[in-house]
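Subgroup meeting minutes
Present: P.N., E.W., G.H.
Scribe: E.W.

1. P.N. recapped why we're keeping a running log of single-chain structure predictions: easier to compare across weeks, and new members can see raw inputs and outputs side by side.
2. G.H. added today's entry (154 aa).
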Amino acid sequence: MHPLDFAMAMELEGKEFYLKQAQNVAGSQLEHLFRALADDEEKHYKFVKQMKESGLYDLEETTILTMADSIFAQPLAKGTKIPESYLEIYDMAIEFEEKAIELYRDLAAKAQKSKEKEVFMKLAKEEETHKTILSKLQELLRRPEEWYPYLDLG
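Output recorded in log:
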């Protein structure tokens, strides 16, 4: 499988994963975060597809950090119980993001053109942002009683 085909498949898989998680937490502030992550994965998919088909490089900037910061600024409601399975879900999501980071770094290392290398490094950086958000969320869920609004995502 061509590396870009693999990247596109991975981005679609990520989108579906995040949409499913959004449904699992429907009505909560986390739903918006998961939908934003799914939107970012869709942008990545379209970009990689565009890159493969035409060689055009026009990756839209992500706004996920701003949105995630506003979500993390709000503590979870007192008494909110998080099933252990959510922690496993975040482990899976973090692992998914790590694989994406590794793929894009590998593609950057193998890129023939400097523009391609730049694009793959940008995608790796966006996936690193997703991983950071998920790691911070996981920490919040593990220790909600110690929630601290100083958790800075930037």
